[in-house]
Write a structure and sequence with these properties.
It is built from nine helices and no strands. It is mainly α. Helix 4 runs parallel beside helix 9 and helix 7 crosses helix 8. The C terminus is likely disordered.
Length: about 190
């Protein structure tokens, strides 16, 4: 996949901050910067999401990777896995998210969160009352609201990146454990 929107020139300070944080300027930011209001809103909301702390970081990371694998956003898989490493999350588990149904490393709660992320991502969504109630009982209302909003945002981001032709930038190459390919998926879902 090739980027469909030419990269916009970012303000110097923003560019330098991105390089300091990630080691490179994220291509989604360069693509969306053609409309600074959209880009700034997206960056601000992303920063606010990072402050949310009612839901376990691992569960949100796994949900992010599950959405990215299902939508086929190689960039989101790439950066999501890289972020999991930077947050000192369990990379052995995170690496298996694209094939979570076959992997034996996940707890029942983690499996339900992965199923929930995929059910929210389906078109139309396929979230059942039973799955939602089960997660609500185990997570509590505040964490469930956070998880749901987080997954919804990740869906917006993954679909935006796909439509703009954003591919992997190689962030996950720094990770010790390779990211598993989604079972039965095309190469689009792989960050490499």
């Amino acid at each position: 996949m090739a980027i469909r929107v030419p990269k916009a020139e970012l303000p110097t300070e923003l560019r330098e901050n991105m390089i300091k944080q990630l080691g490179a300027v994220p291509e989604p930011v360069e693509a969306v910067w053609h409309n600074p209001k959209v880009a700034t809103s997206n960056l601000e909301f992303s920063a606010r999401l990072a402050e949310w702390d009612e839901t376990d970081a691992s569960l949100k990371s796994f949900a992010h990777l599950a959405v990215a694998a299902q939508v086929g956003c190689a960039w989101c898989l790439d950066v999501g896995y890289f972020q999991a490493q930077n947050q000192n999350l369990d990379l052995a588990k995170a690496s298996q998210v694209p094939r979570w149904r076959e992997a034996e490393v996940f707890t029942p709660l983690e499996r339900d969160v992965l199923e929930y992320a995929e059910a929210m991502t389906n078109t139309p969504p396929t979230v059942t009352d039973e799955l939602h109630a089960s997660l609500l009982e185990r997570l509590g209302a505040a964490a469930m609201v956070e998880l749901t909003a987080y997954i919804a945002f990740v869906n917006m981001a993954t679909r935006n990146n796909n439509a703009n032709g954003i591919a992997s930038q190689g962030f996950s190459e720094a990770c010790e454990v390779p990211l598993a390919a989604r079972a039965g998926a095309s190469a689009v879902a792989s960050p490499a």
